[in-house]
């Protein structure tokens, strides 16, 4: 009775049509393929999304943190302009402003004939402790 075909069916059925109670191999194969593709595409998406952060690692710490924040904002808000801004910021080398400013400050100190250590020691020295006044009532 299991080998009988419905009278309205054609003689040769396609491979993907299974008999009742049998395993549907096409369905199982499509499910495995679909799950694998979801994992592969999701992994590719997150790798692509982290691209600006990976590129910013060669730069300065402040630049890397700004790029990481822009990437997170674009991930959570789905506003791609933040990702593009982070990518462009990661590609551009920001100039170093602090080193010339420190050099200028050191040169001005030398020109003014000030010694920085004297000022630092004067500021760091703790004030003289004041003697505690006796409280009235015996100090219970």
Low-confidence stretches: none
Question: In sequence order, what are the helices and strands, one letter per element?
Answer: HHHHHH
Number of strands: 0
Helical content, roughly?
A: 55-70%
Measured between the Cα atoms of the first and last residue, the distance is 104 Å
Main attributes of the structure:
6 helices, elongated, 59% helix, mainly alpha
Description:
By secondary structure, the protein is mainly alpha-helical. The protein has helices spanning 25-49, 51-56, 61-77, 80-91, 98-111, 116-124.
Short description:
The protein is built from six helices and no strands. With 140 residues, the protein is mainly alpha-helical.
Strand and helix map with partners:
Layout: H1 25-49, H2 51-56, H3 61-77, H4 80-91, H5 98-111, H6 116-124
Helix pairs in contact: 3-4
């Amino acid at each position: 009775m299991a080998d009988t075909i419905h009278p309205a069916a054609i003689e040769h059925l396609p491979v993907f049509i299974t008999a009742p109670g049998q395993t549907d191999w096409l369905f199982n194969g499509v499910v495995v393929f679909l799950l694998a593709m979801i994992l592969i595409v999701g992994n590719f998406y997150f790798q692509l999304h982290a691209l600006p952060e990976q590129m910013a690692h060669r730069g300065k710490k402040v630049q890397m943190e700004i790029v990481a924040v822009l990437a997170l904002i674009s991930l959570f808000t789905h506003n791609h302009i933040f990702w593009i801004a982070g990518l462009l910021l990661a590609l551009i080398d920001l100039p170093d402003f602090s080193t010339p400013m420190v050099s200028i400050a050191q040169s001005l100190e030398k020109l003014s004939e000030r010694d920085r250590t004297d000022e630092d020691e004067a500021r760091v020295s703790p004030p003289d402790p004041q003697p505690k006044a006796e409280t009235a009532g015996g100090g219970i």
